[in-house]
Specification:
globular; TIM Barrel; 10% strand; 13 helices; alpha/beta; single chain
Length: 338
């Protein structure tokens, strides 16, 4: 799958670390704010009031019965069904994969887009999903902190891909970003791109730690300038408070729109963390349609990182089709009864 050899990985890491050391020495007298101001001059800043007014309007859109049912099923097809717990086991992953393949007894409900798990469980998910189009996604690069030596982070990516991961969800080093070390951030993302080989990459910004909408826009552009067409940017790990919100996601999809208009390169989007209800998911899809257009309303360009969202989507689909709500326990948390 295009893996780097251990030797070439070590060499690239040494070169990346050396370039970073040189940059830090040369820029010792520069302030992080100087770096941010220069980038803001290039990409523009965010109108906070405008963003928040816009997302408030998205939440007032009335979605009628047939359109609502389409939106709910589309949202199911965009879910990265996720478990990232210390107690995850191969058996739990087997059940999760069955849930991903057949979320509901209703044959009209599609499978999810991917199963997202820790690297050491990738080989188990790959076996259970081998005969499907469902992707195996794995968090990597010292998730969720991103705070370990680059060589170890790259080796983790390579191992996950070798074990069968179709997609890698990496975290950026927020410390480097907040220090204004933008080239170092991009060097690390670029090294992960190389380590991914043919696997798709999603770059997690961890927006709750970036402090401002301007910083979220800046981090989005830094990532998009390095990753490949069809790769993604992602809001959050889901492990920090204040993860995905409609407002910070709007900042990112407007950055995607502006980048696409400037370059013609289409980048995907994945909000993750805190999206639990079907009503929320529909608001996010309205935002995508009105900002990016119908071309982003599919799982190749838009995903939801979620664990509890799927069952609420299934409940709402059942309600739209039958007029009655099912109890939450009607839909299994995994798929052990299937």
């Amino acid at each position: 799958m295009g893996d780097l050899s251990v030797g070439s990985t070590a060499s690239s890491v040494v070169m990346a670390d050396s370039r970073r050391d040189i940059r830090m020495i040369m820029s010792a007298t520069a302030t992080p704010r100087t770096s941010f101001n220069k980038l803001f001059d290039e990409i523009g800043t965010v109108d906070q009031v405008g963003i928040e007014e816009r997302v408030a309007k998205f939440q007032t859109r009335s979605i009628k019965k047939s359109s609502k049912l389409w939106g709910l099923k589309t949202a199911v097809s965009m879910v990265d069904l996720t478990t990232l717990e210390g107690k995850d086991t191969p058996g739990k992953i087997a059940s999760l994969c069955q849930k991903a393949r057949r979320p509901s007894f209703d044959p009209d409900v599609p499978p999810v887009a991917a199963v997202c798990i820790y690297p050491f469980l990738v080989r188990h998910a790959a076996r259970w999903l081998a005969d499907t189009a469902i992707k195996v996604a794995s968090v990597a690069t010292a998730f969720p902190s991103g705070q370990s030596p680059l060589a170890l982070r790259l080796e983790e990516v390579k191992t996950a891909v070798s074990d069968g991961a179709d997609e890698i969800d990496m975290v950026i080093n927020r410390g480097l970003f907040l220090a204004g070390e933008f080239s170092a951030v991009q060097d690390e993302i670029g090294a992960v791109v190389d380590a991914c080989g043919d696997a798709q990459l999603k770059v997690i910004l961890e927006v709750s730690e970036l402090d401002t909408y301007d910083n979220i826009r800046a981090a989005s552009f830094l990532a998009m300038r390095v990753i490949r067409p069809g790769d993604f940017i992602k809001t959050s790990t889901g492990k920090a408070s204040g993860s995905a919100t409609l407002a910070n996601t709007q900042v990112m999809i407007e950055a995607i729109r502006d980048f696409y208009l400037a370059t013609g390169i289409a980048i995907g989007m994945k909000p993750a963390g805190g999206i639990r209800t079907a009503k929320q998911a529909l608001h996010y899809l309205v935002a995508v349609k009105e900002t990016l257009g119908d071309s982003w309303l599919n799982s190749t360009r838009y995903r939801f990182g979620a664990s509890s969202l799927l069952n609420d989507l299934l409940r709402q689909i059942e309600k739209e089709k039958t007029g009655a709500y099912q109890a939450p326990y009607y839909f299994t948390e995994s798929a052990e009864s299937y």
